[in-house]
Amino acid sequence: MSLSFVSTREGVRRSLPAALLQGLAEDGGLYVPESLPRFTAADFAGATTLTAIAERYLEPFFEGTELAADLAEICRETFVFPIPLTAIDRGNAAERLFLLELFHGPTAAFKDVGARFLAACMSRLVQRDDDEPPVTILVATSGDTGGAVAAAFHRRPGFEVGVLFPLDRVSPRQQQQLTCWGDNIRAFAVHGNFDDCQRLVKAAFADVQLGTEFRFSSANSINIGRLLPQSVYYAHASLLHYRDTGKPLALVIPTGNLGNGLAAVLARAAGLPIADIVFATNANRTIPDYFASGQYEARATEPTLASAMDVGNPSNMERLRFLFGEVDELTGLVSAASVDDAAIRTSLKATYDEFGLAVCPHTATGFDVWRHLAEERRTAHDWAIAATAHPAKFETVVEPLLERPVEIPPALAALLDAPASFVEIEPSLDAFKSALRGAR
Ligand SMILES: *Cc1c(COP(=O)(O)O)cnc(C)c1O
Asked: Residue-wise over 17-51: b if at least 16 C-beta within 10 A, else e?
């Protein structure tokens, strides 16, 4: 018997591999595990590396499925870079503060974890047959997702990726990360905004004629295959800390679509030694407003300095409410605070001045929320702030504020040196169709 994944809407049920291939359930809902495993720290005895902890944590979700035998290898393919919990020197403050560095992957943001895991699973699930066309993954991106998906599928036999991004609306370094791959990755620069990109992807999936020419699949952020492995880095960090100190670790998590935030809540619900969890949002304050008022109101998205968190209607809220209940239950489990652009600037500078740490604007929201925690709450735990991206990826925001250059990590530097290419298209399905066909 394998664990079922159930949709948040009409209760459609699937095994993990089927849910992962499907992405969105046919009833329009998002897949969640029907039940969570209950671990204790002792269940992880002997497991010290990310890969070993990933295998134990993920095993109950894979048990009895066609991917079970491959789980160890999938974890080894995914967790190829370190995700360290580094102590921040705060002099002789009693409680400790840590940075959970999620940005050491090939595209310097945490999305590498979910994208690599999904790619490793999908490449084992999709039957390869020389008579069949490759699977074409289409992904619309406002910045970080497209690069992570491209990196994860680059040179994977049997797969092609089409990345659609809004021309002139991503940072120069982000654009480079979307367009530098070549081989089986194609980039399409859309004359429009992110919503146009998403609309084109949906229209392509729905187009009957294209469906006879391509085998489409998606890798977007609501896929359960991206969410599950993200719990692993919280499991790893909290276990190492617990072994070291006997204390659970409290977390501040910068979040937008709530994927990263939900992953931490799931890890704690599965028994990992995690104390408080606080979500940090930017000026898009749908989540903190819901927790304060009890009324969920989706908002129009507002552009901010922490652009990867510009989400007015976080998709994973549907999962959180389905799994854990409405506002009365939720506010007993997590809290949330919003940080506007002025406070992001202040926090970025203060984090550098106090700790000598250059952080990205998303991570700066986390530091601001940590600084504004009530004194007794802040001193009750050791806290870790999730660093969602490397500051060099957002240098146009960070460098003017710190008045110094930010060092570029080697993996990112390699991508910045690679030759780029992309095709510009008008935001119409016809234009996208001919570009897709021309790209083959
Ligand atoms: C995607 C992203 C976020 C937001 O993550 P969610 O899972 O949507 O909450 C935060 N920071 C960076 C750098 C990102 O790329």
From this structure: bebbbbbbbeeebbbbbeebbebeeeebeebeebb
Ligand 1 closest atom vs CA 362: 11
Distance, in Å, from the CA atom of 317 to the CA atom of 107, rounded to the nearest integer, reads: 26
Instruction: Identify whether the C-beta of residue 258 lies closer than 8 Å to the C-beta of residue 284.
Output: no
Beta bridge partners of 216: 136
Question: How far is Cα 230 from Cα 240, in angstroms, rounded to an integer?
Answer: 16
Neighbours of 205 (CB within 10 A): 15
Span from the CA of 45 to the centroid of ligand 1 (angstroms): 31
Ligand 1 atom closest to the CA of 360, numbered from 1: 13
Q: Which of 257, 281, 369, 412 to mutate to test the pocket of ligand 1 (most atoms within 8 A of CB)?
A: 257
> Distance between CA 104 and CA 86 in Å, rounded?
13
Q: Which pLDDT band, with edges at 50, 70 and 90, does 81 fall under?
A: very high
Best residue among 104, 110, 316, 339 to mutate for probing ligand 1's pocket (most ligand atoms within 8 Å of CB) is: 110
255 closest CA partner among 171, 334, 158, 187? 334
Q: Rounded distance, CA 191 to CA 141, Å? A: 14
- Which atom of ligand 1 sits closest to the CA of residue 309? 4
Is the whole model's pTM more than 0.85, yes or no?
yes
DSSP per residue, 147-214: HHHHHHHTT-TTEEEEEEEETTSS-HHHHHHHHS--TTEEEEEESS-HHHHHHHHHHHHH-HHHHHH-
Give the whole-angstrom CA distance, residue 47 versus residue 54. 9
Q: Are 251 and 264 in contact (CB under 8 A)?
A: yes
Dump pLDDT digits (tens) for 347-390: 999 999 999 999 999 999 999 999 999 999 999 999 999 999 99
**Which residues sit opposite 218 in a β-bridge?**
138
Residue 431, φ and ψ in degrees, nearest 5 = -65, -40
Question: Quick one: which of 191, 80, 174, 190 has its CA closest to 138?
Answer: 190
2 C-alpha to center of ligand 1: Å? 31
pLDDT single digits (tens) 286-329: 999 999 999 999 998 899 999 999 989 999 999 999 999 999 99
State the Cα–Cα distance between residues 152 and 405, nearest whole angstrom. 29
* 319-322, Cβ contacts within 8 angstroms, sequence gap of 24 or more: 319/8, 319/30, 319/32, 319/227, 319/258, 319/262, 320/258, 320/262, 320/265, 321/296, 322/8, 322/32
